[in-house]
């Protein structure tokens, strides 16, 4: 039995690796996971939520470069360790003042603070005001800055964590509810099946976004509330699939043998039937992951999803979509392109799993 299991796993792995689309999807998902985990080490702006606001440089194009004077914060934030930075980032230890010119004059540092295009303001600072040995630092914004002067690339990187987390939590919730109710309906039939199918049909008739709105309003706006709301709407697909698979499987010989041996319904269902229908469940889990990312982005765009200043790709599109018709469309197109790539990756993986497991219909 172990040999056959190993050989099946090896055959599944080989078929997946031969599928170029699935392989491309797995590579993209793997990169997204690494970016999500180590985002605060990869982002040019490692401050919490990549929320370093510099209003003077808002709305600039990709490749924009600016020189900053670093002024010491008072009081200075406490140092953070590795795991604290991994989870929440590092608070800025200095204020970033955009400047166009500077020089030392006696004991003072004279600077021209950048206010707007063609407009500067002369200011003077003493060395004790500076946060480091160097008077200024030069920073390049590869994807430009949003209307608040925040680095788009940094918020894009940190936003990956939101999209993957909502997908993961949603899949866990939808699989837990869907497998349990679908398995009960398919195995026991009768009144149990009728009640579960009635509930499925009622929820199926309500538009997904409308149902998510209702649950979100009930639970309130917030990070985890969105995940729970999306998860509570996507279990219906799982339940219908599991019910159909269990109905087709419960009359097979190995199930009859389990009943003849006196095994309980619970053991027969969860130890013998469900492990043999995991293939279709994995496929629909990948599909639900992609759907959750799109729904979360839509909710954030409409203002009932992830709330500022936490970065979300949908929220980034909402904050910058006005720039699409002006001279800087990248601000809104970059998060939209990220959503498209991640959703495509999960769909390609789902198609690869379907082909590798030979799931039809």
Automatic annotation (TrEMBL):
Q: Where are the transmembrane segments?
A: 21-43, 164-188, 195-217, 223-242, 277-306, 330-350
Q: Name one Pfam family in it.
A: OppC_N
Which key words tag this protein in UniProt? Cell membrane, Membrane, Transmembrane, Transmembrane helix, Transport
Domain ABC transmembrane type-1: start-end pairs: 160-350
For whether the record's keyword set contains Lipoprotein, the answer is: no
InterPro entries referenced in this protein's UniProt entry, alphabetically: BP-dependent_transpt_permease, MetI-like, MetI-like_sf, OppC_N
Compartments where found: Cell membrane
Q: What is its main location?
A: membrane
The way this protein sits in the membrane is described as: Multi-pass membrane protein
Similarity-based family: Belongs to the binding-protein-dependent transport system permease family.
Matches recorded under PANTHER family? OLIGOPEPTIDE TRANSPORT SYSTEM PERMEASE PROTEIN APPC (PTHR43386), PEPTIDE ABC TRANSPORTER PERMEASE PROTEIN (PTHR43386:SF25)
Its protein name is: ABC transmembrane type-1 domain-containing protein
């Amino acid at each position: 039995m172990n040999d056959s299991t190993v050989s099946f796993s090896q055959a599944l792995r080989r078929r997946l690796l031969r599928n170029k689309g699935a392989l491309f999807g797995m590579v993209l998902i793997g990169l997204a996971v690494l970016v999500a985990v180590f985002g605060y080490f990869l982002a040019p702006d490692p401050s919490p939520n990549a929320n370093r606001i510099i209003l003077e440089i808002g709305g600039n194009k990709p490749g924009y470069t600016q020189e900053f004077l670093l002024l010491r914060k008072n009081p200075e934030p406490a140092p953070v360790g590795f795991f604290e930075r991994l989870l929440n980032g590092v608070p800025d230890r200095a204020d970033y003042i955009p400047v166009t010119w500077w020089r030392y004059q006696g004991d003072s540092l004279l600077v021209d603070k950048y206010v707007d295009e063609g407009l500067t303001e002369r200011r003077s600072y003493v060395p004790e005001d500076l946060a480091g040995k160097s008077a200024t630092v030069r920073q390049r914004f590869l994807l430009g800055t949003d209307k608040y002067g925040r680095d788009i690339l940094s918020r894009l990187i940190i936003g990956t964590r939101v999209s993957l987390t909502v997908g993961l939590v949603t899949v866990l919730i939808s699989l837990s509810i869907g497998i349990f109710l679908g398995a009960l309906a398919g195995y026991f039939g009768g009144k149990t099946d009728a009640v579960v199918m009635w509930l499925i049909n009622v929820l199926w008739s309500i538009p997904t976004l409308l149902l998510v709105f209702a649950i979100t309003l009930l639970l309130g706006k917030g990070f985890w509330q969105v995940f729970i709301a999306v998860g509570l709407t996507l279990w219906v697909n799982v339940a219908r699939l599991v019910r159909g698979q269990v109905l087709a499987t419960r009359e097979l010989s190995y199930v009859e043998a389990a009943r003849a041996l006196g095994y309980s319904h619970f053991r027969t269902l969860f130890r013998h039937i469900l492990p043999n229908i995991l293939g279709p469940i994995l496929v629909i889990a990948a599909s639900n992951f992609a759907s959750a990312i799109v729904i979360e982005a839509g909710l954030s765009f409409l203002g009932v999803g992830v709330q500022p200043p936490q970065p979300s790709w949908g929220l980034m599109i909402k904050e910058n979509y006005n720039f699409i018709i002006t001279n800087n469309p990248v601000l809104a197109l970059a998060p939209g392109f990220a959503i498209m790539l991640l959703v495509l990756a999960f769909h390609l993986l789902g198609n690869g799993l379907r082909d590798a497991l030979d799931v039809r219909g």
